[in-house]
Automatic annotation (TrEMBL):
<keyword id="KW-0503">Monooxygenase</keyword>
<keyword id="KW-0288">FMN</keyword>
<keyword id="KW-0285">Flavoprotein</keyword>
<dbReference type="InterPro" id="IPR050172">
    <property type="entry name" value="SsuD_RutA_monooxygenase"/>
</dbReference>
<dbReference type="GO" id="GO:0046306">
    <property type="term" value="P:alkanesulfonate catabolic process"/>
</dbReference>
<dbReference type="InterPro" id="IPR036661">
    <property type="entry name" value="Luciferase-like_sf"/>
</dbReference>
<protein>
    <submittedName>
        <fullName>Luciferase family protein</fullName>
    </submittedName>
</protein>
<keyword id="KW-0560">Oxidoreductase</keyword>
<dbReference type="InterPro" id="IPR011251">
    <property type="entry name" value="Luciferase-like_dom"/>
</dbReference>
<feature type="domain" description="Luciferase-like">
    <location>
        <begin position="21"/>
        <end position="326"/>
    </location>
</feature>
<dbReference type="Pfam" id="PF00296">
    <property type="entry name" value="Bac_luciferase"/>
</dbReference>
<dbReference type="GO" id="GO:0008726">
    <property type="term" value="F:alkanesulfonate monooxygenase activity"/>
</dbReference>
Length: 366
């Protein structure tokens, strides 16, 4: 299967190096930067860019609308939390944007791993109940996208009567659904509804275990693809790459008060807990998966890095492909320059190697 590359765009230059509370100016939306950032990904042969979500971030649907106006091919993976917009309305919003972007929309479902962040938007459900609500939410969304007749639905969290949308997605059978979540309740919901299950950058052996776990939960008639999120740190030589990695770690620690400061409190999100547990056991896994930045930041998001030359990082990414991952979400700590470097130096190498494997598979299958 071909490999898919996803980047990430923000509305103003920011990363772990400068995104602590209070470090961003009030004018957090820079339309020209969004345009430049999106165009850099398109020129770099990324397939999509993720637009993230938090209780204080700009609206992802609007960001995608702006970025799509300045690109032609690039897709937009819009992070979306169920529970704050009615599923019928969310389905129509996404279907409408799918038409205006000529089928370049996908939705990344993030149920929410932090009670505090959920409560900022008025959501007081606990973790497991949020996933049960997500299950109902996605059931309704998918039916709105695909049903030719009005339907009723009555569940624990949602009740609709004669639900119907005249606007259907341009993409068939419906807009792709990506899904993130590392807990037990997440696996069943993601396996039931999503097209792509997203994993954070864990060691290869752990990724294989997670893939097997999700596949075991699949309904009989479903197939699913897998994504992994990583943070490449490149250098002309391996030594320069490691020097850059240590400099980035030092800058992050300085932002947080120095290396001796106690790490952030243990997060609620199971995915973050897993990254922290890996970081506590070893700084390096496999060939070049580096974990100290996850430890320094409390693993708030995908924070494990691949460190090396472009050729070495490409080789490590292909190892994930060989493990069963077909979507690679890569973003840097210097977001725009790194995206340009990935497009020029890493993506072509990975695509070439994956194409070689595809040809070999066809030959063996004859």
């Amino acid at each position: 299967m071909p490999v898919e590359f996803i980047g990430l765009i923000r509305t103003k230059p920011a990363s772990e190096l400068n995104s602590l509370p209070g470090s961003l100016a009030d004018d957090i939306i820079d339309p020209a930067y969004v345009r430049e950032f999106a165009q850099a990904h398109e020129q770099g042969d990324f397939d999509k860019v993720l637009i993230g979500y938090s209780s204080s971030s700009p609206d992802g649907f609007t960001v995608a609308t702006h970025a799509a106006a300045f690109t032609e091919r690039l897709g937009f993976l819009i992070a979306h939390r169920p529970g704050f917009v009615a599923p019928t309305l969310a389905a129509r919003k996404a279907a409408t944007l799918d038409h205006f972007t000529n089928g370049r929309i996908a939705v990344h479902i993030i149920t929410g791993g932090s009670d505090a962040d959920q409560q900022r938007d008025g959501d007081w459900l606990d973790h497991d109940n949020r996933y049960r609500r997500t299950d109902e939410y996605l059931e309704i969304v998918r039916r709105v996208w695909t049903s030719d007749t009005p339907f009723d639905y009555e569940g624990e969290f949602y009740r609709v009567k004669d639900a119907f949308s005249a606007i259907k997605p341009l993409q068939k059978p419906h807009i792709p659904l990506y899904f993130g979540g590392a807990s037990g309740p997440a696996v069943g919901v993601g396996a039931k509804h999503s097209n792509v299950y997203a994993l954070w950058g864990e060691p290869i052996a752990a990724v294989k275990e997670r893939i097997a776990q999700v596949k075991a939960a699949l309904p009989p008639d479903r197939s699913i693809r897998f994504s992994v999120s990583l943070r490449p740190i490149l250098g002309v030589t391996e030594e320069q790459a490691w020097e850059r990695a240590r400099n980035i770690l030092g800058r992050i620690q300085e932002q947080r008060g120095g290396a001796k400061v106690a790490p952030p409190a243990r997060p609620q999100a199971v995915g973050s807990q897993r990254l922290l547990d890996f970081a506590a056991k070893s700084e390096i896994y496999d060939k070049r998966l580096w974990t100290p930045i996850a430890a320094a930041t409390g693993a708030a998001g995908n924070t494990t890095a691949l460190v090396g030359t472009p050729e070495q990082v490409a080789e490590a990414l292909v190892d994930y492909y060989d493990a069963g991952v077909t979507t690679l979400l890569i973003r840097g700590f210097d977001p725009l320059p790194d995206a340009i470097d990935y497009g020029r130096e890493v993506i072509p190498l990975v695509r070439k190697e994956v194409a070689k494997r595809e040809r070999q598979a066809v030959t063996v299958g004859r």
